[in-house]
Amino acid sequence: MAIKPIVIMGVAKLLEESKLVTEFNSPFLTELTQDMHDTQRHFDGVGMAAPQIGVNLRVIIFGFDVCERYPQQLPIPETVLINPEYEPLSEEMALDWEGCLSVPGLRGAVSRYTQIRYWGYDLHGESVAGEAAGFHARVIQHEVDHLNGVLFVHRIVDWRLFGYEQVLDLNLNGNNAA
Ligand code: NI
Questions:
Q1: How far away, in angstroms, is 102 Cα from ligand 1 center?
Q2: What is the pLDDT of residue 170?
Q3: What is the Å distance from ligand 1's center to 172 Cα?
Q4: Distance in Å, CA 51 to ligand 1 centroid
Q5: Which three-class secondary structure state does DSSP give residue 98?
Q6: What's the gap in Å between 71 CA and the centre of ligand 1?
Q7: Of 44, 85, 110, 149, which is most buried by a Cβ count within 10 Å?
Q8: Nearest to residue 140, comparing CAs of 71, 72, 61?
Q9: What stretches of 32-75 adopt beta strand conformation (E)?
Q10: Residues within 5 A (CB) of ion ligand 1
């Protein structure tokens, strides 16, 4: 169990392109994903990318049973995805609120694909693939963005839909399809 400090917006390393994982089945990789899991749990996140704990490798995790930061969302199975990729299954996109442990206290409305197919590898180098929709799809797109040095704030189009989470009106007036 190791809860790591979260790298927050403003640290240049968070804006770097992360490197592909080339060695699987390693104690390093097992420890990294365990630390990510413990850290995500501790800070009540729904997903996390390795650069958020200072490791610029293409590793993401996502999934939760209950999340107090997103209380209205259904559970997502816990998944480790290494060298992740995705493609949209339809052109449909939806605007919804997003937050990030690296951008504490703030939320912004970001447009994401509503349905995706994703793939990558598990800790042992075995292929993992699946489909995701809605919030699940949003989380995966958000975490993959981290591996390319992209934060959700970089995708905000309407800056009126950005603010502190404790005061935001979370109703996007019908735009919320995710
Ligand atoms: Ni994030």
A1: 6
A2: 61
A3: 21
A4: 10
A5: strand
A6: 17
A7: 110
A8: 61
A9: 47-49, 59-64
A10: 100
**94 three-state secondary structure:** strand
What letter represents residue 131's amino acid? E
What pLDDT, on a 0 to 100 scale, did the predictor assign at position 114? 97
Helices (H), the chain: 27-42, 134-147
**Residues with active-site annotation:** 143
Cα(43)–Cα(32) distance, integer angstroms: 16
Report the alpha-carbon distance of residue 101 to residue 59 in Å, rounded.
16
Q: Split the chain (178 residues) into runs of 10 and give each run's mean pLDDT.
A: 94 97 96 96 94 98 86 88 98 96 96 98 96 96 98 96 85 50
* Radius of gyration from C-alpha coordinates of the chain: 15
Q: What is the pLDDT of residue 169?
A: 74
Residue found by looking up tokens 């109703």 in the block = 171
The pLDDT score that the predictor gives to residue 64 is 86
Question: Please, are residues 50 and 32 in contact by the beta-carbon 8 Å criterion?
Answer: yes
Cβ neighbours of residue 160 closer than 8 Å, sequence gap 6 or more: none
Count of CB atoms situated within 10 Å of the CB of 151: 18
